[in-house]
Structures are given as structure tokens and as C-alpha cells.
Amino acid sequence: MRLRFEKIDLAHFSVCVQFRTDSYQCSFGSTMGLAEEMGPDGQRYREKIELRGRDARWGYYHVWQGDEIIGQLEFRSYSEQQEGWGYVHLFYLAPAFRGRGLFPTLQDFVTDALRAQRCRGAFLSVSPTNTRALRCYQKHGWRFFDDSPKRPGSAIFCYEFPA
User: In total, how many domains does the chain have?
Assistant: First the structure.
């Protein structure tokens, strides 16, 4: 299955909101708190994508298969955890595309983009209730690093890029 990665075009912002909402539901079992985080009508989230999209340290991409957007990636080339490491805010595939072996392609894209920014690895936060994501991350080389200081109960995982 051939995938392509394109910077997010805000003409597809409703897809961003849909994917973010599903991701939040998968992670936390509800969307309570998401509206406050995204702002009225998602405006705060839209502004983040717009502003960060102009900053070379950030990556906001849609994952396409043919003429369909099937996923979304959000990451940056710095982290609070360790200098020289990036941070992944979102690995997302639409439900119909999960479990099809596509994650390594997404991970490789993010790895290559962060390596181009001189990162040696990346971190991400994952909720322990998102068991499917946890299994996927662990299967593909991510390991527990620390408890999340921003979201009690969640964990920070790290992935050191292969040499």
C-alpha cells in the first residue's frame, strides 16, 4: 500500500478535528476536556497548526492513500525530556487502516524528518488505557522512559533512532 505525506492543508481542517477527536477518544476513553483544549470551533487547534506549520522545527502532515486522507502526524524537533531528541504529538491512522502494518511507514517518515533536524530519537506520551497503541509502540522499539508530568496516569515512551 503506497502512502504519501503532505503538509496539512487547512482546507482539510475538519479532517484534523475528526482525527484529533478520535485519537483523544482512543487515548482517554472520552472526549471530555478536548473542546477546552481545542478552543471554540477548534480555533485554538487551527491556530497552532497554522503558526507551527511555518516553523521548520514542527511537522504537521496528513497521510494519504490515493485521494483519501487516512492518517495524521504531528511532531517537533525538540523535547523537554532530552536535548537532541524530538517529540511526537500524534501518530494517527483512521480506524479502517489500523492493524494493516502501516505504522512502520509512519514511524520511518517521522524518524527521517527528525533526523534531518539532527535528532537522535523521539519521545511521545501514551495513555495506559490505549492498549492498542501501547502494544504497537512497544512492538516497534519504543520503551518506557518516565511518567508524564503533564497528564497524570500517562507515560512517556522513547525511541532511539537506529544507527
Answer: 1
